[in-house]
Amino acid sequence: MGSSSRLIIAAVLLPAAAILAVHAPTMATAENSNLFRDYIGAIFTGVQFSDVPINPDCQVDFILAFAIDYTTATSPPSPTNGQFSIFWQDTVLTPSAVAAIKQSNPNVRVAVSLGGATVSGTPVQFTATSVDSWVQNAVSSLTAIIQQYNLDGIDVDYEQFQAAADPATFAACIGQLVTTLKDNGVIQFASIAPFDDADVQSHYQALWASSGTDIDYVNFQFYAYGADTTADQYVSHFDDQIANYPGGNILASFTTAPTTTSVPIDTALSACQTLQQQDKLYGIFIWAADYSKSQGFQYETQAQALLAN
Question: Which residues are part of the catalytic machinery?
Fold first, then answer.
């Protein structure tokens, strides 16, 4: 995720019981919402779902990071053409833990993020031998993981792309994956997690052009902008992404990682207040609960309080 996850990776507003019959088109942006999302499990700090404060007046999505179509049986790890494996801290974030947090909090959903930035220090590149074979493998492997953990959705966070995986190929693979998982009743929702990089944007905007109505949220990594970003500039960047992903539910974001190169949290929260006043704060996500653990989850608490207001 963003600038911080490109350095570190170790290895979601329907109720959870909603009927999975058809998937509705994406709602238009420019509407406040109480959606809060938190990535979890990538940094292996032992963080548990139950550690994170959950405001009952928010829709809270935990996003497991990550499932990756790479294998560590080779050195360096190598792509598997859509055969996904678990790379989050699954000794802590288990199927029983998912069941427990959802049972005790009816406003909680749990999703899984795909890809990420690195695996065992190696960049994760989106790689597909062919569209048909990648989609077939991805649908099969992800369905098994999602059903094992009783997950509700997926998030797409590929940040690098093999040369052959041009925007059209990426759009076809991910678009067919999302559509198939929804049509099969495997997931309720899907999100994408781009950031402001020309290559990244070209791939995700191609996906949006072909399959935007099947993508429910855009987890845009606004914290990947520089540390000198002002709140007004943050809001301007937000408006840019409304134009880049027309009709999309764009989420504001910040990172709790110990970094001096990302947008400061106070700046992001100030911008969120402005967006809320403009009726454009569809939701907020944080990268990541793993880092927030040592901070007492104070920013999860603040963000949810703002959304519940």
Answer: 159
